[in-house]
């Protein structure tokens, strides 16, 4: 029992008459203890979330050479320079381009996969686990292997193209081709994951809706587009948000896709350099301009906030109100 | 219980004695007591060839244990890590290697490193080529950041079997005679390409460009992208333009295999014998051996580089201030950069000594390399080493070089024509220098 008593939140006892203050103490306990219980998360968040954010912002207002000892304050200069920096906008277009051509096919394929897995297959669990396997592999390993597959001269993809009589493609120094190659990597990893989430949502759809549709004469395809897809909308939006967060911060895949000298550029003309890579290039090698890199980080943060806000608006319009998910949640 | 304090006392006494012996009169900075052997971490990149030397050193210093990190990593992975460690104030090894192109950036903030002049390094001046010694000094000459390891005398490595297939001479003196100048090298390349061996004449235009630039700059202005007052002269230095034009000729003649240097493809191209020549600073021989593998032993050989000499690369060893074992680390640096240490490294992996004594040593002058068909590497690289003309490198050398090399690469890949490429090189270099 004593152990139990000791486990109370560390509230400093009032000096002197303890018995008198026990009433006040218990009131204090009921009012403030809940905050203490949730405090660990917020403390950690403050240390690992808020502080780095604030510090990055502070750094972005300075001319901050990584090795230098003096860091003169320059105000918004890093930001004004950045907004006029063509390479920054180039990286932004790359990021959004790769995001679009990876996310759209990914979600369509995941939907199709989930639909297949939802049928009465033999060894169902085996199939469901199999689609998740790519997600378990390390990103760096995937990126290195794909980097080799998409090699210009020794890559298997170009070899296959050659077999069917097509010209080799410069996967690493053609802007669109490199976007496609990187998207293939992202999709290979994440399609199965999204398929499982969509599958779970599909299984929550009441069977009687399908029966009713069947009685009304809807075939399988019609059932899919008119019953399954509308009811999956909130889940699809969830998957889209997750893909957005990942897509805008894409780093490992495009970074490891390139090898050799200065791979952080993402190709000789920055064909597949994403925003996070541009941030890294400026904050670390070869520029070591920490202030400028921090400004990139903050603009990326702003961009993600904007995209997230758009997502929320879309979510409100499409998935809001008394939707089917809300009922299922409790 | 009675034993414990006594044993501890003995340990402290032992540590104090060794510390006294090792530091040889230096003030300290080492607050570590006597917790058994001291572990020294050495950070390197590429191939320094120190393994054997560590064994020797540890055998002579039972209280020191050496751990090395980074052999085989390329410079682009290594240097950002080192910078981060220095900026963070922890993480760096007790001894770190600094490549010549990055030395200027690190010298700009000398506070990160121990001043070796405070630790008796001044007496060692005669052990190094004068310019190599000077490169380790800060602008005011008051601090010595690092002691020199190697210099990068340049030759031309080539595949004998591919030359034979193309009907070219294979013997190294005859091959050297093929290309007194870079234009002759291009003419030879055209003959090679016409023979259709299935291989390219050279690996990548970027490596060759850098070689030509450093050679031309060494022979003329003495600086490349920056002049000696640290002004960016990428568009006004004739050496840069000349190297660019020669490289464009090489690209125009279709001699390059376009294997981006240091990439996975580049390594594969070595393995699959996809190119016949590669510009070859002394340290490159170790890289070739590592990439081409044991099966290619005896198929490579080394000839003279077209044009006149030149120096590419070479490093210094420094001790970061953050090291907890500065005194021991300084001793290790002195050992590794001594004539004996440099000879040992040369024998292991081929980096050419920067010590005149080592260069005169029979172990170097008589050295040959079995991998390269027994080529007398000691004389090939060593002969010109003492007359090497250093090239001055400015503060943002690495960033500027990256931009110019990428411009070369875009022309090589057909993304830009030479005119556009040059415009890109100049504008991007200026932008990088201003960052």
UniProtKB/TrEMBL annotation, chain A:
It comes from the Bacteria. InterPro entries: ABC_transporter_permease, MetI-like, MetI-like_sf. It is found in: Cell membrane. Belongs to the binding-protein-dependent transport system permease family. Gene3D superfamilies: MetI-like (1.10.3720.10). Residues 92-311 form the ABC transmembrane type-1 domain. The chain crosses the membrane at residues 35-58, 88-117, 129-150, 231-251, 295-315. This is Sugar ABC transporter permease. It comes from Micromonospora parastrephiae. It is a multi-pass membrane protein. Keywords: Cell membrane, Membrane, Transmembrane, Transmembrane helix, Transport. Its main location: membrane. Residues 1-24 are annotated as: Disordered.
UniProtKB/TrEMBL annotation, chain B:
The keyword Lipid biosynthesis does not apply. Residues 1-24 form the signal peptide. It comes from the Bacteria. SUPFAM superfamilies: Periplasmic binding protein-like II. Keywords: Signal. The keyword Signal applies. It holds the Pfam family SBP_bac_8. PANTHER family: ARABINOSE-BINDING PROTEIN-RELATED, SUGAR BINDING SECRETED PROTEIN. This is Extracellular solute-binding protein. It comes from Micromonospora parastrephiae.
